[in-house]
């Protein structure tokens, strides 16, 4: 950790640690009732969640699509605990947000745009099926140079490219040459071969289990968080991906104040990979089978939207 004073966002992070228990987040009205139900549903089985070693089931959360909007990125970085952040390459605030995340002892991922079956605009630093191996290496080298302190790689979109065994093999070869990087398959296609390619290449790798916010609705996001907990309790680990929507951040601020209240432990992605590998769980449970490159935060963000 750097010795220099942390930026303003770090103060918000530290203040959030001092907040009261998650049950006190319950307020009057619909949102209060929603979180009361969530808390009750989880704590009814909390005593049954520990494994033979006494460890709680582990969850990790990745917030995707950082880099275009400074203030939304800073708000996302204030989430408590070891939340990880996936930063899009060559975006206006990529370097600054990644540096702050690193100062806050958060993991940073390079969020690599990959070709979609829906032919969506990919943005800078993207990989496509038309690229040769040399081109892929050049694009990835430039991308990782634009985002400092990277611990891992995950795909942005990619429902077309992640089905290509050769392209995924080239990606994993590049990652092996870079050293201690892990791979996260966002699984935007049920036919993705990215996770199996990473495993065959000997990389540390994991696939996501739940998308928190295909619908940017607080009630649905809370339900998806509950699904994440249920999956973690079923097999010991669970990985969720979300986006810096106000609704997503609002839910996570409440539930991540004290994850043990829900019978789980929030850990880094690298730690989650180690635990899942130890348990010999190779393929994730596809909790969101219908997700396929649905519209997300960064897709409509333009330079004109920046504040």
CATH topology: TIM Barrel
Largest sheet: 9 strands, parallel
Low-confidence sequence ranges? 1-31, 33-37, 39-48, 297-307
- What's the CATH superfamily, by name? Glycoside hydrolase/deacetylase
Strand-residue fraction? 5-15%
Mean pLDDT: 83
CATH architecture: Alpha-Beta Barrel
**How many structural units, i.e. domains?**
1
Tell me what the structure shows:
It contains ten helices and nine strands. It has one domain (57-293): Glycoside hydrolase/deacetylase (TIM Barrel, Alpha-Beta Barrel), CATH 3.20.20.370. The protein has helices spanning 8-17, 30-43, 70-77, 94-103, 133-146, 165-178, 194-200, 218-235, 246-255, 269-278; strands spanning 58-66, 84-87, 108-114, 150-157, 182-185, 205-207, 210-211, 237-242, 265-266. Helix 2 (30-43) runs parallel beside helix 8 (218-235). The chain is an alpha/beta fold and 307 residues long.
SSE inventory with pairings:
Layout: H1 8-17, H2 30-43, E1 58-66, H3 70-77, E2 84-87, H4 94-103, E3 108-114, H5 133-146, E4 150-157, H6 165-178, E5 182-185, H7 194-200, E6 205-207, E7 210-211, H8 218-235, E8 237-242, H9 246-255, E9 265-266, H10 269-278
Parallel strand pairs: 1-2, 1-8, 1-9, 2-3, 3-4, 4-5, 5-6, 7-8
Helix pairs in contact: 2-8, 5-6
What is this entry, summarized?
With 307 residues, the protein is of the alpha/beta class.
Give the tags.
single chain, 307 residues, alpha/beta, TIM Barrel, 9-stranded parallel sheet, 37% helix, globular, disordered N terminus
